[in-house]
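Complex 223.
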Amino acid sequence: MRIVKSPTPDLFASAADRGQRTEPLAEGAAILRAFAAEDAAALMRSLREILEAASFRHMTTPGGFRMSVAMTNCGTAGWVTDRTGYRYDPMDPLSGRAWPPMPQSFRRVAATAAVAAGFAGFEPDSCLINRYDPGARLSLHQDRNERDYTAPIVSVSLGIAAVFLFGGAKRNERPKRVLLESGDVVVWGGPARLTFHGVAPLAEDNHPLTGPHRINLTFRKAL
Ligand code: MD6
Ligand code: FE
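Predicted structure with fe (iii) ion bound:
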């Protein structure tokens, strides 16, 4: 049902109403505004358990640079980078153990967001968890370490808002700039799967859910 001129639309938003806040970014890419807003606190509780086994760390790029974004993973395989390159690894190099399993709450938000964006049957096996501190940024890149590009990527933003940079198929295309707020979900697949994208330096701010940080959960089918 479409509610027109509701004074408090989000308070009563059903799944269908949330679908009305879909913003197309490109063919195959969309922002689902506030899609995960109601799940945000539960996602953060699950994250705290993950961090007890696999804490945030600043990884090193193959070129030898320390990433400003702190990362960890859950799921069957985790995205890692070190001097030898980028890869999905079934083991956490820091602990020498498997990554923590992907919580049901993570799995559900990823699968339902994929459906809402037109990608039914998404079963992520990997979730890269990013923590942005003030000033942290992610330069333009493509996500291309996954085995098969037919699955989309689902990205959940929590805490402090950030400017997401959304470019084109080539690095030199000038990116669009879109603000991602807590609970926003970006889904990315099909013809947009290899789009260059990044995150502008995080502003100093404070959010009730995350304090001075932005958290991003990026779900992939890696293997
Ligand atoms: C971030 N996201 O939002 C970083 N990748 O913190 C990504 O790198 C990303 O949001 C692929 C698809 C969606 C994304
Ligand atoms: Fe990415």
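Residues 146 and 222 are 4 Å apart (CA to CA).
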